[in-house]
Amino acid sequence: MAEDGQVYDVLVIGGGITGAFVARDCALRGLATALVERDDFGSGTTGTCMGMLHGGLQYLLSNPELTRVECAESGIMQKAAPHLVFAIPFIFVIDSEDKVDKFEAFMAYYAQFQEAKFGRPHVTLTHDEALRLEPALRPGFAAAITNDEPGVNVFRLNLLAALDAAEHGADVWNHTEVTELLVEDAGKGPRRAAAPEETGSPEGRASPRRRVTGARVRDVLTGETREIRARVTVNACGPWVPRVTAMAGLDYRLRPTKGIHIILDRRVTSVGVAANAIDGRGICLLPHENTCLIGTTDDDFFGDEDDVRATRDEVEYLLRSMETVLPDVGRARVIRVMAGVRPTLYQYGIYEDKVTRDFEVWDHLERDGLDGLITIAGGKMTIARIMAEKTTDAVARRLGPDRAERPCRTADLPLPGGDGCPGPAELERLARRFRVPLA
Predict the structure, then answer these.
(1) Which phi and psi (to 5°) does residue 381 adopt?
(2) CA-closest candidate to residue 352, choices 259, 244, 241, 216
């Protein structure tokens, strides 16, 4: 519990993977940090993702720079948390001969980024070689190409980031909901945040004389309310970002997209399988322990972010699509469905599955004349660390030159439990030496 009269350097709102890494980075730079999450850590978008630190293969043609960053950040995450990471060997099923050369060229282009994430070179398999590797495939395809991507225990990753923030001095609370931002005029006491129509601008821009000085929060379990004061407040609420900016009288939009994953009651394959869905979009199946996960969908979402549910049609779409390459999927039983909303940036005039997965850091003093509020929007789990670094850089600049000079350490510092654990490159070397499977 914050002490009466305490003023933090930074208050981070949102305890998903992004907010937890922001709080960790801030605490490691010596900033007095508070982190609040209205539910369990990682219970929102983070908890419904596929759980892969993949290298952004699907963005290679549209945004190769994002692919480069994702591969680099995947490698950093693997080194920071080797105890949470496991290799997922994949095969991409190619349905016609005229696509084989295109896939080969595509994977050759991807290879230049692979080393950063400890990826192994791809191999093109004939029809018979692929069936020997994975007998569950439906015969009749042209060829297959191998790839590998790292999987991660996303819940532990999120929690360890929050715990490491606490270990370095941050005050961390879950089940603590922000009910309003504390906004005050220069030289005056706090007042409520103005609504967009009160700011004199159709975009909801605030007066330069306003600043955010923290938030009023409510303990979800007890109903107790209190104020948390901070020099800078970070809005790291994922798809709920517009709700928090609205508390400051600002009108910001995202283009949230819904994704679902289904979990089967058995392990259908021994390797991951990627294929085209019935509408041409890419989907994949991941075996994990004695289950399999299939995903994902990618559709515009217009509903309540607190009430996201999968439909029967969405589940059938994934099952029927994967059955085209893995007939045994139809014999399995769906035991769980996960539905979540991605905090994708607003873009107009493109299909939802083409919306960028990049991120932006919004300093609302520069954009809206509102001091003390910074928003991190967009992005995805693999790049959460670099998103946090850029956000913390913006926080430090607002706090003054002495804070801005403090370097980010998260690219080199392991998460709790990761120190001394062999990384991916060392594990592969040991596997070759002792002639045992890596996965």
Answers:
(1) -60, -45
(2) 259
Tally of CB atoms within 10 A around 105:
10
Instruction: Report the C-alpha gap between 244 and 400 in whole angstroms.
Output: 25
What domains does the chain contain, in order, with CATH numbers? 1-88+149-254+355-439 (3.50.50.60), 89-148+256-354 (3.30.9.10)
pLDDT, tens digit, 9 for 90 and up, residues 48-73: 999 999 999 999 999 999 999 999 99
Residue among 55, 59, 60, 11 nearest 31 (CA): 11
**227-277 per-position pLDDT tens digit:** 999 999 999 999 999 999 999 999 999 999 999 999 999 999 999 999 999
Tell me the Cα Rg of the chain: 23
What torsion do the CA atoms of 209, 213, 219, 220 make, to the nearest 10 degrees? 40
Determine whether 304 is exposed, middle or buried from the number of CB atoms within 10 Å of its CB (0-12, 13-18, 19+). Answer: exposed
